[in-house]
């Protein structure tokens, strides 16, 4: 069973579903029992949801060109 300290590190992985089924059950059980962690989880869930609504900024053309050129150079090495 994760501790509250563990939960602060696990919540994002839980939201992204990158933890094992066993870990998901343990985290869920902790959330059932711990009001403070439920509040933290809810805050993180809302934050992630809001951030997903914001479209990412495209880099300016010169930055994009520098990144592509660097990738080509690295591929040649």
- Unreliable parts: none
What oligomeric state do the depicted chains represent?
single chain
Q: Supply the number of helical segments.
A: 4
Counting structural domains, the number is 1
Dominant shape: elongated
Number of strands: 0
The overall average pLDDT, rounded, is 93
Just name the CATH architecture: Orthogonal Bundle
CATH topology: Arc Repressor Mutant, subunit A
Distance between the termini: 48 Å
Helix-and-strand structural type: mainly alpha
Helix content, binned percent: over 70%
The rounded Rg comes to: 19 Å
**Could you describe the largest sheet, including whether it forms a barrel?**
none
What does this structure look like?
This protein has 77 residues and is mostly helical. The protein has a single domain, classed as Orthogonal Bundle (Arc Repressor Mutant, subunit A). The chain has helices at 4-15, 21-33, 35-53, 61-76. Helix 1 crosses helix 2, helix 1 (4-15) packs parallel to helix 3 (35-53) and helix 2 (21-33) packs across helix 3 (35-53). The protein is elongated and about 55 Å long. It starts with a helix and ends with a helix. The mean pLDDT is 93.
């Amino acid at each position: 069973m994760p501790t509250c300290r563990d939960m602060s590190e696990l919540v994002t992985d839980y939201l992204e579903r990158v933890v094992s089924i066993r870990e998901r059950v343990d985290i869920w059980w902790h959330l059932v029992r711990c009001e403070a962690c439920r509040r933290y989880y809810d805050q993180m869930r809302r934050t992630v949801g809001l951030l997903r609504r914001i479209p990412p900024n495209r880099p300016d053309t010169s930055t994009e060109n520098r990144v592509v050129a660097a990738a080509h150079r690295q591929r040649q090495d």
